[in-house]
């Protein structure tokens, strides 16, 4: 056989191998999209809205949240605001949230017969402005939709599956986009919306620009997932707060967690709350006014929440999570002496805690101000366009009466390397691994069914 013939056979074999790999990647890119694109649309819409939570809440709930600034006017005492709230909503006051700015109201959380109720109070006059169920604002609704919290624990596991498969979607998408011989569809869009090539190019070009954002949002969204997020949170907190030795003083700790008593940052959800030491019988607790004065003297950023102790060994907890990470703070006060039992700030977090909190802050559009919000809004819109273009492209390509799954590679051995990568990812993210097994079963059944139909 001549060298020319050998060369042609080698080139043909190389082309077949390349085509088989392309088909394998395309097939799993299709499956990844089939699994997560509907969820990505929902996450993108709710996420884009939640980026502007403060602005939207201030408009929708202006009658509750906004007040007229009284120049030079003294604010009502915290105890007066709580008393006014209790007058309209009987129960036990468990939290006071101070105004985050001079034109914002204070919020008193009451635990009553109807559950937890948020009562909004004018901080200058002490007059009650109105009330809502606790976390009953429009943006809390959007947040719960975004995290699928409304649909129960098992539904929230979909967050982890979506995040893992979206990373796979980006990786396989980059391979499919990678320039080979085509001149369009790399950085430009060919054709018109009537043609499939337009939607193919739109999908590819949009994907290559937004792919990095998808990976970032997926990774930084993982902390809220049902399995991986819970385990990492537990591991990151370690014993009690899980912070460097010397940060926490030697005080007794309760079995209560910060997240159970107050809205908190993700990395402190499993942090335990200290106990007020036992005092002489009949000892008198400090007042809420004294606790707030102490928190002010310690320099907590305004807008902080004060959790009011409801048991004899409970503590006053002041916590604030502003856009500026450096000003995050959690302080626990002995309810009898007013002495700080624990004072924790962002600087006291370990390297993992700081990295996680930074990622979460950017994910929520807080770290870099308006620029952060605008950039992520465009990323969310691009994700929606990515999903829509994928659906249109599939619709135009699909054969009649078929799901339109991309063809199986002729040499199925090329699937082994791809599956090995997927399995490794599944070991790090258990729910993604479980969904991978289910998808493999589906693919096997689908392939056999198609082969039987063809044979018949």
From TrEMBL:
The UniProt entry's coiled-coil ranges are none
InterPro entries the UniProt entry points to: PepSY, PepSY-ass_TM
**UniProt entry keywords in alphabetical sequence:** Membrane, Transmembrane, Transmembrane helix
Q: Write down a Pfam family by its short name.
A: PepSY_TM
Keyword Oxidoreductase listed:
no
Q: Can you give the residue ranges of the PepSY domain?
A: 82-131
Record-annotated membrane-spanning stretches: 28-52, 157-178, 198-219, 374-395, 415-442
Highest taxon, organism lineage: Bacteria
What is the protein's species of origin?
Rhizobium oryzicola
Q: Keyword DNA-binding: yes or no? A: no
**What is the protein name for this chain?**
PepSY domain-containing protein
């Amino acid at each position: 056989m001549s060298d020319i013939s050998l060369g042609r056979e080698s080139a043909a074999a190389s082309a077949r191998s390349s085509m088989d790999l392309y088909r394998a990647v395309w097939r799993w890119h299709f499956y990844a999209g089939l699994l997560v694109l509907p969820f990505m649309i929902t996450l993108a819409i709710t996420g884009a809205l939640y980026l502007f939570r403060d602005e939207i809440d201030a408009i929708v709930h202006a009658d509750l949240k906004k007040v007229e600034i009284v120049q030079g006017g003294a604010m009502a005492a915290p105890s007066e605001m709580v008393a006014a709230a209790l007058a309209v909503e009987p129960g036990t006051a468990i939290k006071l949230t101070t105004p985050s700015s001079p034109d914002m109201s204070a919020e008193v959380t009451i635990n009553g017969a109807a559950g937890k109720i948020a009562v909004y109070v004018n901080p200058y006059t002490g007059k009650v402005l109105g009330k809502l169920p606790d976390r009953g604002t429009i943006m809390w609704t959007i947040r719960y939709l975004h995290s699928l919290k409304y649909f129960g624990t098992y539904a929230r596991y979909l967050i982890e599956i979506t995040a893992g498969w979206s990373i796979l979607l980006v990786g396989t998408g980059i391979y499919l986009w990678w320039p080979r011989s085509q001149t369009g569809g790399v950085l430009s869009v060919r054709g018109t919306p009537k043609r499939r090539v337009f939607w193919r190019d739109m999908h590819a070009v949009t994907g290559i620009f937004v792919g990095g954002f998808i990976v970032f949002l997926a990774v930084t969204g993982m902390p809220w997932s049902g399995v991986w997020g819970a385990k990492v949170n537990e591991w990151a907190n370690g014993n009690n707060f899980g912070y460097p030795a010397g940060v926490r003083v030697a005080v007794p700790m309760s079995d209560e967690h910060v997240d159970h008593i107050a809205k908190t940052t993700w990395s402190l959800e499993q942090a335990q709350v200290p106990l007020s030491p036992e005092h002489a019988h009949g000892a008198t607790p400090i007042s809420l006014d004294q606790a707030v004065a102490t928190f002010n003297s310690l320099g907590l950023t305004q807008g902080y929440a004060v959790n009011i102790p409801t048991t004899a060994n409970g503590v006053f907890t002041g916590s604030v999570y502003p856009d500026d990470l450096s000003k995050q703070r959690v302080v626990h006060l002995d309810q009898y002496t007013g002495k700080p039992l624990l004072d924790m700030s962002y600087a006291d977090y370990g390297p993992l805690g700081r990295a996680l909190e930074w990622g979460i802050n950017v994910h929520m559009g807080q770290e870099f101000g308006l620029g952060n919000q605008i950039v992520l809004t465009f990323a969310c819109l691009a994700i929606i366009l990515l999903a829509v273009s994928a659906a249109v492209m599939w619709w135009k390509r699909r054969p009649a009466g078929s799901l339109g799954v991309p063809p199986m590679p002729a040499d199925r051995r090329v699937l082994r390397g791809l599956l090995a990568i997927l399995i490794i990812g599944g070991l790090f993210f258990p729910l993604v691994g479980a969904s991978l097994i289910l998808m493999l079963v589906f693919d096997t059944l689908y392939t056999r069914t198609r082969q039987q139909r063809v044979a018949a």
